[in-house]
Structures are given as structure tokens and as C-alpha cells.
Amino acid sequence: MTDMNVIPELKQIIGALLFAAREPIAFETIRKTLRDAGKQYEGPVQDFAKASDEDIHAALKQLGDDLTRNHVGIHIGEVANGYRLQNDLNCGLWIRQMLEKGRNNRLSKPALETLAIIAYRQPCTRSEIESVRGVAVDAILKNLMEMQLVKAAGRSELPGRPWLFATTQKFLEYFGLKDVKDLPGIEELRRMEKAQAEAKRNEAIEKAVQEENAVSPELPLGDRSGEVPPGKTGDTDAGADEDDGAPDEQRDEVVDENGETAMTEDDDVYEDEDEEEDEFDEDEDDEDSSDEDESDEEDVEDEEEEYDDEDEDDEEDDDDADEDEEEEDDRDDR
Length: 334
Hints:
Helices cover 60% and strands 9% of the residues. The protein contains 12 helices and 7 strands. It has a 3-stranded antiparallel sheet. Strands 1-2 form a two-stranded antiparallel sheet. A two-stranded antiparallel sheet has the order 6-7. Helix 1 (10-20) packs across helix 4 and helix 6 crosses helix 8. The protein is rod-shaped and about 190 Å long. Mean pLDDT is 75; it is low at 231-266.
């Protein structure tokens, strides 16, 4: 490494790292590798250890441009928050023919459906997946976990604390995604879920309002005490109501053909009611007066009986006095 002509460029070192890696390399991993090599070796290696983040990004971009310009069949892809060398899409037919010869590693349709549910709803429980698919997914989940596309991401707070499932980094590598947010239509799905949650909330509010109205229904028109009865207009006599509690006796006046005022039909009804009340009051007065007369007669009879009793007592006293006088006269005669 003493000859300067054999010292590789930074983009060559990064290209070799991407080629040797079995999984995407994070930017931090590239930077750490350069610095660790500078600590272990001396000479120009230490110069690469001093490379800044801007130098590394520039080397990655330059390497990607060279691969694309030279049409070598590979390019640098940014996958799963890292970088890797991957084949061009137009060369995939021959690669599949070579790698998939004699074996079938493709995901089945049920496995893809289950994997899509987990990817879009992660983390989610097995019951949530089954509620969407409508069938049991135990065997499919086991296969996906064996393929390292799905992992257990903890336990839910629901009763029984079921397992939560989520996608792995290998899932991102398998489908060539940088992040789960890059899934097609995920923003639309989020908007749909938000709209559904808003609709459920509005439905719950409407239901609560309906239940409240059912508990306290409005009074029918005939029971509303604050309204003016039909056929009556104008202001009521508030003073009369406060003084004696009598109903409002104000009447609408109707002008007839001769210019005279006449009472309306409602006034006739009120007059009939007043007459019935007057008759009822008269009957009560008559009954009261008759009760008073009877009580007076009873008092007079009681007084007469008392006078008769007193007269009888006086007569008895007089008789006793006469008898005593006669006895005294007889004694004198003797």
C-alpha cells in the first residue's frame, strides 16, 4: 500500500462493501467501518477514516452514476434504511430462471393477503387478521415467520394479552422498500381509517342525542301552557291572573255589519263556563245557608229544653218549701 497508484478511491471501497454485504448496509455502518480501519491500520487508511458524511454521500452518488452510465446490470438501491447493490429490473427474467430453477419460493395468494394485512395494519393481533380475511391464519403466520418476513412485536393490552405481529427488515428487502411508509396507497388507507373513525364518532353522538330526546320528549301542542289558545290574540291581562288566579277573561271583539262589537265563539264558551261556575257557587251558598238555619234551630231547641229543665227544678224547690212550712205549722199546733 506504499504505492499511491494502488490506493483505491472512496467509491471503490464503498462499492466493495456493498458487494460483500448480505443485507443492506446503513450509512452509519459504512462510516464506522472506515473509522475502525483507520484505528487498526496506518498510512493512507487513516486518511479514509477522516472522510466526512458529505464525502461518503458524494462517493455513493458517484458510484451509482457510474453503474447506471456503464450499463453493468446493477445499481445502488436504498432499501430498508440502508444501501445495497441490486440487479436492474430488465434483467430479472434471467435471474429468476437461474435462482428459482427446481424450487418454488413464491408466496401463495393467502400468504400475500395475510402479509399485506400485517404490513398495512402493523402491529396487529391474529384475531384482527382473521376478522379481515374471515379464515384462520395460524399456519400462514407460522410460514411467514419461518421466512423471516413477519416477527412478534410484543403483546397487546387486550384481555389475554395476545401477540402483536409486524413486518421485518427482510420484508423491506424482499419487496425493495426503503420504509413501510413507501407501501403503495398507505396514505389513502390512513385517510380512510380516519374517515371511518370520524363517522363512527358522529354516529355515536347522534345516537346519544336521540336517546336523550327519547327520555325527555317534547310536550304535545295541547299541553303547552305557555301558548295562546286558538281564536285569542293580543296581550293577556297579567294583573287579573296575579290577583285572583282566575283565567284570562279578555275577549276578542268582532265588529259586525252594524258597526257594533260582538263576542266571538270562544267568548260564548267562556261565558257558559262562567255561568256554570256562578250556578255552582249559588248552590253552595244555598247549602251553606240551609246548614246554618238547621244549626240555629238546634240551638233554639237546646235553649228551650234548658229553660224547661230550670222551671221543673224551681217547681220542685217550691213544693219542698211548702212541705217544710206545713210540717213546721203542725209542730206549732202540737
